[in-house]
Structures are given as structure tokens and as C-alpha cells.
Specification:
- The chain is mainly alpha-helical.
- 79% of the residues lie in helices and 0% in strands.
Amino acid sequence: MEILIVGILIIIALIVNGRIDTKKFIKDNELAVNILKESDYDFLVRAKYGDKVTPEEMFRKRVKNSLLIFIIMLFILIAQINFLNIVLCVIVTVVMFKSYYLTLKSYYKKHLHEIDLLLPYYLKSLEILMQHYTVPVALGKSIKDAPAIFKDGLDILISKINAGDGSIDPYMEFAISYPVRDSMRMMRLLYRLGMGNQERKDEQLMTFSRTISSLQNKSRETKYKERLNKMESKTMLMLSVTGIGVLLLLMLTIIRMFNV
């Protein structure tokens, strides 16, 4: 136990003096650290922050802060260090580590419909470019005006297509990286449009446009339906509270009349 305490104190001293670079340590062990990363973490970071930060940067900061919390907890409990206190430190660290992810998840749920509509709106605007260029060229020209959330993914998608990958895989990988509503279906449509016959391009574009518009309308209808359900539930709650209040007042009035 004494050796553990001395070891903790030495580690804290080395970190404070800058002898141990936590950023470099996390970066050097990135493959091992990434095992802790949730499958949708990158998407959630992009959904909230766009291109202001990178998911990798945010995750390294998250791991660093969690490690610091663990060390601080050990330092606070160092006078009473035992197995239970070490377990307590681990639990607090895990809770703090997960809290960053849960905050992102909460943001996504609050802005679910706005985020889900980003891809259909982007593809709708892409339609104009696709009237004059092939799909890969149109995608490349659209990056500058694309929503920040998709820019990194579009760069990867275009680079794979330009490298000679003519399969549907780059499109599906994009859809998996950005799991907004109907992303798989929309990217399949885009792939088919790119692989289609140039002579039937106008007809294919019309089909693509109608499908994307339909998906936009479906998302908007779901949004309005949920709003309506919330309003109805609030109205029912208000009516219930009012009814109970009136009932209580009537009962009090009747009791007073009997007492008189």
C-alpha cells in the first residue's frame, strides 16, 4: 500500500512538472484508448460542433480529463487508501468519462429533426450541380457549401472514388459514419444516380429529386407530429391538474359546510 501511495505521488509530481506529457501519452496509445470510444461518438461531436473541433481532439481531451479526475480522487483519498476507495475512484472516473458522451447524446436528441434534415437538404442543393456535372465532380464542388458536419466525410468519400473505387462501399461508409434518418437509402440513390446512363440523366434526376423531397416531408411531418403530441400531453396535464384542484376545493367546501 505504501508503494502505491509513493507511486501516485511521483506520477502527480511528474505531471505537474511537465515530465509526463499526458497529451503525448494518449496520442501514442491512441489505438488502445480508442477501444473506449463509443461507435457514434465521432458523429455526435460533428453534429454538435461541426468543423470547429475534430472528434479525435475532443476524445483525447475527454480521456485526459478523466485520467486527471482519477488521479485527483486518489490524491484526496490517499490518507485512507484501500480497495474500496480505489473502486470509488474508478466509478467516479467512469461516470465522468461517460458524462461527456451523454451530454452529446442529449444534444442530439434535442436537435434530432434539425440534424436529420441536414442530409436531405444538402442532397437537394447538390441536385443543381448534378445537372451539369457527374456525381463525383458535383460532390467535390459542393464541399465548400456543404454543412460542416459532413465535410470530413465528403472528403473521404471523394478521395476513395477518385482513387478508383467504383463500388457502393464509399457511399455506405459515409452513411454509417453519419447515421441520420434514411442515410443508407439516400446514399444508395446517389450511387445509382452516379452509375446510371447519361442519356437518362434528366429522368434519373427527377426520380432522385422526388425521393429526397419525400424524405424531407416525412421528417418534417414527424417533427410536427411530435410537437403536437407534446402540446396534447401538456394540455391533458393542465386539465388534470385543474380538475384535481377543483375537486379538492369542492371537498374542502363540503367539509366546512358539515362542520358548520
